[in-house]
Every structure is written in structure tokens, then in C-alpha cells.
Amino acid sequence: MIYGEQKLKETADKVLGMTKAGQAEVILTVTDHALTRFANSQIHQNVASNDLGISVRVIVDKRIGVAGTNSFDDESLKSTVAKAEEIAKHQKADPNFVSLPAPKNFKKIEVEVTQATPEERARAVSIIIEKVKKHKGVLASGAYDSSITEIAVCNSLGVWAYHKAAAHELMTILLGPTSNGFASVLKKEPTLIDADLVADQALKKVLDGANPQDLEPGEYEVILEPQAVNEMMSFLAWLGPNARVYHEKASFFSGKLGQEVLGKNITLTDEPRDLRGFPMPFDFEGYPKEKLVIVDSGKLENLCYDSYYAGKHEAENTGHALPAPNTYGPIPLHLKLEPGTKTQEELVKDVKRGLLVTRLWYVRFLNPRSMTITGMTRDGTFLIENGKIVKPVRNLRFNQSIPEALNNVLGVGKELETLSSFETELGTNRMPALHIKNWTFTSGTDF
Question: Is 0.70 topped by the overall pTM?
């Protein structure tokens, strides 16, 4: 189900005509979603859905109200506008609100969008299942998720922005008698999904990881594969360059703009127009997105702002608004960690004694101010000695400061992997493997 730009523009204009608020904003989304799930080495669910979404924000004398619906008929639209206006009436005026963004030119990003058919999804899943069946005691589970999304933003100051995108992700977790294996691939077109590669990567993890042994907790060198790096960096995105958290002095970065905060071999950018990822030309206020250098060779260069925090702190809007009402603050959705010069295999060879970590799991903040996270390793954890992987080990729980880890990076992988961000179709991160000098493991697990 594709609505198209013209039909969404007509709907947005209709909504704006229903309110007399001083300023108003309309966000429209159209989603065509399909999902094939499998477990115990068989497909058990194949579903598809179409959904509409509309969010209306009104501002009356700096009092703000937001309401939404998933129906585009006139009655639902009028009711939603009325709810937003009623909510605004009962709000206190926000003295920090300046204005919604004014129109600003940006270059559209045209991309082909294709939905994966049920047959394509089933074919990819069957490749994994058939490969797994050759290995006694190993069962395949996972999902093939395919979606097309249209997003449009319109406001009463004249902003109009429209974009459509597609995302296709095949993921599997293989369950062996004593070990798990994980692999996934995220692409813009179904024809680019390599099910054989996903199956082979997950099988290697589960077979190499059989009969893991206990390992004493403590500080170890680690090789974090891109999936693990992405999990860590997603937490940094929330509490690092976020202007709200920074100015509230709740971030490790607070007060350190222009100073070295990470290692000199760390350069972190937000690249929303990079076609190698999943590009998005504007934010959820319709404001243009451009490349933003956040950390340059360890130095904190820029923060992420939306219109609200740019107005509040007299800064430049960088195009990082999330949908209103947004209590999180402005967050980068297209993080890229600048690659290094070594393959992952070469990074492993540099380790005297440490661990190879496939993924981080059940990660939570322990201390937001120091950006300390806790969680566990998962789906493949291996001991490295003198540059060689010598044996699988049981998963370990960790407590680790992200800035501390990124100040002790001994090597950065040269290959970047495209991985899910906050909104898969509209934001993706690109991450390498990392060799980190010290990572603190506090206890073992039973699996």
C-alpha cells in the first residue's frame, strides 16, 4: 500500500485547515509491513499488515498539545485536531518554545522500494532451515522482516517534506545442545538478502561454541563484533550528543564541548544522507538533515539539536527531532564510527588474552552520568590467547563505562556493517569491530 506524496499532501493540508492554532504540525506515516517467523526449524507465522498514522501538534500561546489517530477519514481527522487543541488548553505555557521550523530547502533522496513476497521470505528461511538440518541437535529460529514506509511532515509555516524507504532484515538464532549462534543481514532490497551467508555465519558460531567452559570474571581485552559495538553506541547516542541531556548536565559529555572525550582513534559522525546506509533527508519536524561530525579524533565537536532545544539554547538546529511529544531529546539515527585499517581477523591476532564477543544482550544503564552500562554477552563468546581463538566460554555479565571503553580502543576494524537504529527504515548505524584494551566482566552466567 503506497499512498504517494500528492495524496499525503492533500491529507496534511486538510488537517491544517481544521485548526485555528497559532502554529500546527502534521506527521503522516504509511507502513506496509510483512513478517515471516520461524522456530524449531519450521515456519510458524506469516503475517502482513498495512497501517496509517497521523500525529497533530498544535501550539496556542506557547501551550502545546499532541494527538494522533490511525484513520484518515474526515471525522477522525477533525476529532484528532480537537483533542490536540483541548490538550493544549490544559497545558502550561512553555517559555522555552520559540517556534516550529520554517521551510528550508533540501535535496530529496529517491530510492526504489520493494516489498519481499511471501515466497521470497519463505525461500530465504528455508535455506537456513535446510542447512541447519544437516547438524544434529541444532534448531533454527528467527524472522524475516520486510517493510515499506512513507513519512511526510507538514506545518503551518509552509514546511512540506516527504520520503519513502524500505527495509528487509533476515535474522536467525540457532539453538544447539550447549550453545547458540546468531547472524543477521539488513538490506534495502530483497534481492540483496544472502540467506546462505546468514546461515553459514550462525552455524559457525553455534558449532564453534559447543560445550563452553566457565571463565573467571575480571578485566579482559575484547574484540567486539559490529553487532556488539552497535548495541553500545546506541546507548551513547541517547545520552551522549543529545542536547537536552548535555545542557541538563546529565551526560558524561556535559561541559566538554571542544574537549577530548574519547580516544584519538575515535571519529563519530551522523550521516543521514549516506546511501550506503538507510538515508533520511529530514527529521520528524521536516527540517533538513546533513552530515554532522560529533566526535573528531576524540574531540567533542558538535551536539544534536532539534528546533526546541536550538531555540532554548540559542544554537543551530541540526535536524535531529523525534516525533512530538518527545521527552528524550534530539538523537542521532545514522551513526557512523570511522573505520580503521584492519580486518576482524587481524584484530584478533593482536589480542594477547581476551574475549571475542558476538553480541551484547539485555543492556541497561547503570549510571547515565558516566554512561556505564550493564548486560551480558550472547550467542558466541570465545577466549583468545596469543592471537588465536582457543575455546568457547560461558556468557559473562559486564559493567562498563562506554567512554572508558572508547578511550582504550587498540584497533578499529576496516569493514562497516549496516545495523538497525531507532527506526529501521528511516535510520541505520554503520559500525566496525573494535579491539578494546579493558572490558570489565563482573560475573558468569548459567548459559
Answer: yes
Q: Which of 147, 144, 151 is nearest to 9 (CA)?
A: 151
Distance set, CA 139 to CA 128, 142, 172, 179 (Å): 10, 10, 10, 11
**Cα radius of gyration rounded to whole Å, the chain:** 23
Asked whether 358 and 378 are in contact (CB, 8 A), the reply is yes
Angle at 37 between CA 34 and CA 38, to 5 degrees: 155
Q: Give backbone dihedrals phi and psi of 58, rounded to 5 degrees, phi first.
A: -120, 145
CB 351 within 8 A of CB 439: no
Q: How many CA atoms lie within 13 A of 16 on its CB side?
A: 21
Q: What is the pLDDT of residues 231-279, one digit of tens each?
A: 999 999 999 999 999 999 999 999 999 999 999 999 999 999 999 989 9
**Each residue's pLDDT tens digit, 419-439:** 987 555 568 999 999 999 999
pLDDT greater than 70 at residue 54: yes
CA-CA distance, 402 to 339, in Å (whole number)? 18
Residue type, 109: I
Q: Which of 398, 402, 356, 399 is nearest to 380 (CA)?
A: 356
